Structures are given as structure tokens and as C-alpha cells.
Amino acid sequence: MNQNKISTAMIAKLAMMTAISVVLLLIVRIPFPPAPFLVYDPADVPIYITAFAFGPIPGILVTFIVCFIQAFILGGDGLYGFLMHFIATGIVVLLIGAMYGKRKTKKRAMESLLASIIIGTVVMCGMNLVVTPLFMGVPTKVVWGMIPTIILPFNLIKLGVNSLITFVVYKRISGFLHKNIVTENKKA
């Protein structure tokens, strides 16, 4: 029975992080000046925090739900938007969840976020070369030309800002995220 309470608490916390992510997605939207079709939002911050707090699998679950809601319910870019957002956020979630989960220190948190900024940016440049021509009909040559001036800077900024916010906020709320689960384990 105690296991059900832990599962219920975990589900509630993942639902809360999903809801916070969707709210941020709706209220903070800043177009990227060189390419206004690219929009910064801090919706990934709660997802990154989920990966730090609970690991990569819960982080991927929240990522999937948020990406689905954005792409298909809130009028996002459909399958193209879902795929790009899921891969961009998913790679970060897997990296920080796996790296930080092995050694939970401030230094390791910084290392995992820095690695995710670099790897996430490289992956998104590659994904834009493959997915954008398929879904948007933009010639690969045009996408190549956008990488140094639009795609690379946008992803570095978005991943960098979201990572910085996550780093500043995570430890301040991690006690809350773990409180009920730890308390319930002590009762067992």
C-alpha cells in the first residue's frame, strides 16, 4: 500500500511539472529577432528539473506529454513541431538525468547542463538539416545557410538560458519535490 502512495505522489509531481511547463509555454513567448518563427519559451525548465529530481525516464515522460500538448492541442506545428521539440528537449533530459543521477553534486549538475547545451545544439543543427527539408519543403542548402546565423545561435541561447534558470532554481525546490516521497519511505 505504501508503494501506491509513493507512485501517487510521483504521478502528482510529474503532473505538476507538466502543468507548469505548459503554463510557461503559454505565457512566455519571445520571438528570436533574426527568425521570428523561432520562439524562446522557458517551458523546458520544469522538464529539466524533473530530470534532475527523478531521472531521465520521468523527464522523458513529461517531455512527451508537453510536446504533444504543444504540437497537437495548443496549435503548435503538428508532427514537425512535436518531433523537433521532443528531440531537442529529450536529448537534454537524457543527458542531465543520466549524468546527474550518477553523482548528485553541484559540479556534476553544471557539467551535465554544459554537455547538454553543446550536444543539444549539435543535434538540433543536424535535425534541422534532415527534418526541416522533409516537413517544411525548405531546400537543404537553405537550411545549411541558416545554421551559423539562425539555428546555432537560437539553440545556444535557448538551451543556455533554460539551463541557467534550471541551475539557479533546482536546489531551491528540490526539497519540495522529494519531501513526500522521502517522508513516506520513512514510514515504511
Question: Radius of gyration from the CA trace?
Answer: 17 Å
Round the mean pLDDT to the nearest integer and report it: 89
Largest sheet: 2 strands, antiparallel
Write down how many β-strands occur, each being a DSSP E stretch of 2 or more residues.
Answer: 2
Largest sheet, order of strands side by side? 1-2
Count of runs of 4 or more consecutive helical residues: 6
Portion of residues in beta strands equals under 5%
Q: The CATH topology is what?
A: Arp2/3 complex 21 kDa subunit ARPC3
Q: Which architecture per CATH? A: Orthogonal Bundle
Helix content: over 70%
Distance between the termini: 10 Å
Choose one word for the global shape.
Answer: globular
| Helix-and-strand structural type | mainly alpha
Key attributes of the depicted protein:
two-stranded antiparallel ribbon, single chain, 6 helices, mainly alpha, Arp2/3 complex 21 kDa subunit ARPC3, 188 residues
Verbal overview:
The protein is mainly alpha-helical and 188 residues long. The chain has one domain: Arp2/3 complex 21 kDa subunit ARPC3 (Orthogonal Bundle). It is 85% helix and 5% strand. It has helices at 2-27, 44-54, 56-73, 78-102, 106-136, 140-187; strands at 30-32, 35-40. Strands 1-2 form a two-stranded antiparallel ribbon. Strand 1 (30-32) and strand 2 form a beta hairpin. Helix 3 packs antiparallel against helix 4. The longest helix has 48 residues, at 140-187. The termini are close together. The mean pLDDT is 89.
Summarize the structure.
The protein is mainly α and 188 residues long. 85% of the residues lie in helices and 5% in strands.
